[in-house]
Design goal:
The chain starts with 11 loop residues before the first helix and ends with a helix. By secondary structure, the protein is mostly helical. The longest helix has about 35 residues. About 60% of the residues are buried.
């Protein structure tokens, strides 16, 4: 079986870095969907429109994040089968994941539209932007099945060692998004609805291109018609792996919505500043996230190949690498934050700038906590212990609820700025406990194999 990036032999850290770079660039391109929407809406529509688009971030993560979390779990057996050299199982699990992703995505579209307006009211969306937020998010939800499919196709590709090809397809889809954003928002004047429609068409484009690659061009995945039938046993296995990952996104997003409700109490200017700063912070988060995804693939393939000693030794090095990256990203975030935040605003005021600066400073001080989170969570996920994601999500939820409902009323917006670091810390603690218990088990297995 041909391996695009050799995760099973050679220098583990080099393989992970080489594998992670295209993932980071792909994530950057995917992130540009929201970034471009925010910049164009903020500059060519209004501050209220920017606040409206930013306001739906937590709800969007709650529904779309949960959907995409499922696909991350669906493809874990693909990496295990690839590491074990079982080509037939690779195709079987890949085909099943596609069928289940499409079915679940269709159901989520219906549920999302029923929940969107009530959720906007629950988080205390200001009256002046509630209709704009609703119009934007309800168009986006039609893209959920396409997002799930493109994410699933991409996850299959990465599970068999190919991280470069998805980058090409996302480059095309982001270019489509930008062109349509300019056309729909700037030229046609369609406002937030135009931005959402541009993103929807881009997701359809990404799904079509990544699907064509998996079915026609990837030599390691030979999916047959039988693989694309609904296989209840396999589907339940994959859903069982996917649900804890999805729940992690869901639980974390509930915390984010609680926090957003606290931010909303400060008014549209602070919402806009917080939104702009959050988008910039998410940008510098991407290298650590990409290393996490690469770690999951590395661990998953080596687990399938029973290379337990390679897993134990390499995760320590990955941990140190990610900590170093987090320090570099903290410095970069501090340097680029002011010019980047200004891209979102045509008429910034003191309240917007102050909110953005306070959020960025708090994040820079604590960025290493998120590096620890990515390494531990993705290592355990690659091993198939996806329940750890749900435990970590509960820790993040506790941190954000504590900030939103206890500390924010006492000390104001400063508490909001430290909500993410608090959430990361409370997720790191249980993940570290779970990882250390599994670490001892794999050290014993590695000793038995020598």
């Amino acid at each position: 079986m041909k391996k695009k990036t050799d995760m099973l032999g050679g220098n583990a850290i080099k393989s992970i870095i080489v594998f992670a770079l295209p993932i980071m660039l792909s994530s950057l391109l995917q992130y540009n969907y929201a970034l471009v929407d925010n910049i164009i809406v903020g500059r060519y529509v209004s501050t209220d429109a920017l606040a409206a688009v930013g306001n739906v971030g937590a709800i969007n993560s709650f529904i779309i994040g949960a959907a995409l979390g499922l696909t991350s779990g669906f493809t874990i057996p693909v990496a295990h089968a690839f590491g074990a050299g079982d080509r037939r199982k690779v195709a079987h699990y890949s085909g099943s994941s596609i069928v289940v992703a499409l079915m679940v995505g269709t159901v989520i579209v219906v549920v999302a539209h029923l929940l969107s307006k009530p959720l906007l009211k629950i988080i205390g969306t200001p009256d002046e932007i509630v209709d704009l937020s609703s119009a934007y998010i309800n168009i986006l939800y039609f893209g959920v099945p396409f997002q799930m499919l493109s994410n699933n196709f991409t996850a299959i590709s990465r599970a068999v060692g190919e991280s470069k090809k998805p980058l090409y397809f996302f480059t095309i889809s982001v270019f489509v998004n930008f062109c349509l954003d300019m056309l729909f928002v700037k030229t046609f004047g369609w406002g937030v609805e135009g931005a959402a429609a541009a993103t929807l068409i881009s997701h359809i484009t990404a799904a079509a291109l990544t699907g064509f690659y998996i079915f026609k061009l990837n030599d390691d995945v030979d999916i047959t018609k039988d693989d694309l039938k609904f296989h209840p046993k396999t589907a339940l296995q994959q859903i069982g792996l996917g649900i804890p990952v999805s729940m992690q996104f869901t639980i974390t997003s509930i915390g984010s919505m609680c926090l957003q409700s606290a931010v909303n109490s400060f008014g549209a200017n602070v919402i806009a500043g917080f939104t702009a700063a959050s988008r910039v912070e998410n940008l510098t988060n991407l290298p650590m996230s990409a290393l996490g995804v690469a770690t999951q693939t590395f661990v998953g393939q080596n687990y399938g190949a029973k290379n337990y000693d390679r897993i134990v030794k390499s995760v320590k090095k990955i941990f140190l690498l990610d900590l170093g990256v987090s320090v570099a990203m903290s410095i970069l975030l501090f340097i680029i934050s002011k010019p980047m935040v200004s891209l979102f605003m045509t008429e910034p005021n003191a309240a917007m700038i102050a909110a953005a600066n306070r959020y960025i400073l708090a994040t820079c001080q604590c960025y290493s906590l998120v590096a620890v989170l990515f390494v531990l969570r993705n290592t355990l996920q690659g091993l198939g212990f996806t329940y750890a994601n749900m435990v970590a999500g509960a820790g993040e939820l506790a941190g954000r609820i504590l900030i939103a409902f206890v500390l924010t009323p006492l000390i104001g917006f400063t508490a909001v700025c430290y909500a993410a670091p608090a959430a990361w810390l409370l997720a790191d603690i249980p993940l570290a406990i779970i990882y250390l218990s599994k670490h001892r088990k794999f050290k014993k297995l590695a000793a038995e194999n020598t």
